Amino acid sequence: MNTSQLRQVDLNLLVVFAVFAEERSVSAAATRLLLTQPAVSRALNRLRTMFNDDLFIRGKGRYELTPNAARILKELEVVLPRIDRLVRGSEFDPLKEEVVFNIACTDYALSILGPQITRRIISHGSKASLCFVVFSESVYQDLEQGHVDLAFQVHEERIPVSLATEKLFEEEMVCIVPNSWAKLSRLSLDRYAASGHVIVSLHDSVQAFPDKALLRHGIKRKSLLRVPHFLAALECVEATDLVATVPKRFAEKYARHFHVRVIAPPKELERYEYWMAWHPRLNSDSAHQWLRREVRLAARSL
């Protein structure tokens, strides 16, 4: 971390900058800052020297910001509340502090959990925003390096023990089959194993669940098609004689839009757990605590 320039800066000047940019008046800024007007004028001169810019130009009845001052103010509106919270150790307030949360997830999590989270976090007046990114092979490295704040996934042994995790909810799988199939309430394990399958996987030829559960019974699915998203799997089943194994909540939301049937999977495919993971350095971060709390409440509403 290079702080050579920061060591030469009086951070109180940035507070003066922010207040004056809001007030555009020496007297009004002095009142808010509990300073004399000459002290505010001296601080403004020091700011002009520090940024090598006029910053504020006198206009009709008030000062106007230069383009550089406007850019600085935009940055300070994000940075100063965080510094203030850091010093005071206060709770995160989404109505006052701008923050972007990056969440890695699959199309399943985004379509089922995403709307619930969005409704809670992107509320009226909130300055918090969300960026959902694709759950990729580098997700654990992204969590380690701080590129991603939170990841949603099936709980399995792949999650590094160095990460913090928490169970969100339980899910179960159902089978999507073509409408041409005879009506069945459930697929037997034998027929399931003999059928051709659409595999939904972002990384490799294995769909974390149910493939790893099937291996315990010595079964490997006959993979004839691999797609990266569950919605694509539904479309492919409609056009083929293949079977797709998808989460029940996803099927309940989307299967009715396709010419397919939804039937129960073999009894050997048990329920599974969906978790969130994050780096432990964020355990006590109040903004991340707030995020996890909102995600937790969103998951309970499913």
Describe the 3D structure.
Keywords: DNA-binding, Transcription, Transcription regulation. InterPro entries: LysR-type_TF (IPR050389), LysR_HTH_N (IPR000847), LysR_subst-bd (IPR005119), WH-like_DNA-bd_sf (IPR036388), WH_DNA-bd_sf (IPR036390), YidZ_PBP2 (IPR037402). Belongs to the LysR transcriptional regulatory family. GO terms for molecular function: DNA binding; DNA-binding transcription factor activity. This is LysR family transcriptional regulator. With 302 residues, this protein is α/β, with parallel strands linked by helices. The protein has 3 domains: 6-88, Winged helix-like DNA-binding domain superfamily/Winged helix DNA-binding domain (Arc Repressor Mutant, subunit A); 99-164 and 276-300, D-Maltodextrin-Binding Protein, domain 2 (3-Layer(aba) Sandwich); 173-270, Periplasmic binding protein-like II (D-Maltodextrin-Binding Protein, domain 2). It contains 12 helices and 12 strands. The chain has helices at 11-23, 26-33, 37-51, 67-88, 107-112, 114-121, 139-145, 189-194, 208-215, 230-239, 248-254, 286-300; strands spanning 56-58, 63-65, 99-105, 128-134, 150-154, 164-171, 173-178, 196-200, 222-227, 243-247, 260-263, 272-278. The strands form 3 sheets. It has a 5-stranded mixed β-sheet with strand order 4-3-5-12-6. A 5-stranded mixed β-sheet has the order 9-8-10-7-11. Helix 1 packs across helix 4 (67-88) and helix 6 packs across helix 12. The longest helix is centred in the first third of the chain and has 22 residues, at 67-88.
